[in-house]
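Tip: read the tokens left to right.
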């Protein structure tokens, strides 16, 4: 299995994250991917290549033009306004204050496009986000050209980003971008399976009205877990997409017995949907020692999960998402990939 990875991810390295009422070292940091790269090499999965430039036409087709303009210029505008630190949202269009008119002032503009305050924008965020999208695009093209599978080691991740909003450490939705690419390359039906602990709200938002791309997410119940306001089981799609969304919210302390049952149901739904290609949002923060999650999966469980996914027999693209127990993230990610290859 070939891995696509860009060193430009290092351009995005916020120094602070708002968590628990204080600024802490961000959970999403460059060392995460170093652990994954090292484990890939240890396990003989050392076919690692850099992607080419991002396909901006495809990104513009997915994302709102004003949002992309914001991402590209936010740091410059922030500094021009005399702000001392990194770009962090503090003002949001709360309930009954919704508007489709972004403020001109950068402080308000940041809140308009942000999902939450934990995700900072730095001088290199735009370049890093594009490089992450480029990895997903290159990996998808590799699979579309005939490879059984590929791994896009995306950083920053993408599944919380909508077409016009960032947050949850995400800026461009790599999984949705890849799913759209499979459709353009001729797949009549595509599935996106999100196994990250946190609900893939951005992917759901982008695909909710689509009947040609199935979306399934296994995640912490929104009553208890970020992003809180989406991911309920009764969210099943709208319009042409009715029935093409499947959410599996689970309670604190969920172990592999329950989680794997949800996975099996999601895989059965994907089979029934008739998907011709699969995108997996590969987060491993369901791990028992993850610092910002509450499931109880252990490392061998990820191997079994990969094997179950592999039984679909579909051309498959894995896009890296979350996983913040950094010393175990490489083991858990590669366990999924090896399980898939052994299926």
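Filled-in amino acids:
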């Amino acid at each position: 299995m070939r891995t696509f990875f860009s060193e430009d991810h290092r351009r995005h390295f916020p120094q602070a994250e708002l968590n628990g009422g204080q600024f802490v070292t961000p959970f999403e940091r460059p060392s995460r991917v170093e652990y994954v790269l090292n484990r890939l090499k240890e396990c003989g999965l050392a076919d690692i290549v850099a992607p080419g430039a991002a396909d901006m036409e495809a990104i513009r087709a997915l994302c709102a033009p004003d949002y992309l303009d914001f991402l590209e210029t936010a740091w410059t505008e922030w500094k021009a306004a005399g702000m001392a630190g990194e770009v962090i949202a503090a003002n949001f269009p709360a309930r009954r204050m919704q508007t489709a008119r972004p403020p001109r002032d950068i402080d308000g503009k940041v809140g308009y496009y942000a999902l939450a305050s934990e995700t900072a924008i730095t001088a290199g965020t735009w370049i890093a986000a594009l490089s992450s999208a480029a990895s997903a695009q290159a990996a998808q093209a590799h699979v579309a050209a005939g490879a059984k599978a590929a791994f896009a080691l995306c950083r920053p991740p993408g599944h919380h980003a909508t077409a016009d909003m960032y947050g949850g450490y995400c800026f461009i939705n790599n999984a949705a971008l890849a799913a759209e690419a499979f459709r353009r390359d001729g797949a009549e039906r595509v599935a996106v399976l999100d196994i990250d602990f946190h609900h893939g709200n951005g992917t759901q938002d982008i695909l909710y009205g689509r009947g040609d791309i199935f979306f399934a997410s296994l995640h912490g119940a929104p009553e208890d877990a970020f992003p809180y306001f989406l991911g309920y089981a009764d969210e099943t799609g709208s319009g042409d997409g009715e029935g093409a969304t499947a959410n599996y919210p689970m309670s604190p302390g969920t172990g592999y017995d329950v989680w794997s049952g949800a996975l099996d149901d999601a895989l059965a739904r994907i089979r029934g949907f008739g998907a011709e290609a699969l995108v997996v949002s590969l987060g491993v923060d369901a791990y028992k020692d993850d610092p910002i999650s509450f499931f109880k999966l252990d490392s061998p469980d990820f191997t079994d999960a990969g094997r179950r996914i592999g039984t679909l027999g579909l051309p498959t693209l894995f896009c890296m998402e979350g996983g913040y127990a950094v010393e175990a993230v490489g083991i858990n990610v590669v366990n999924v990939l090896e399980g898939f290859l052994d299926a």
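Residues 57 and 63 are 10 Å apart (CA to CA). The chain has a mean pLDDT of 98.
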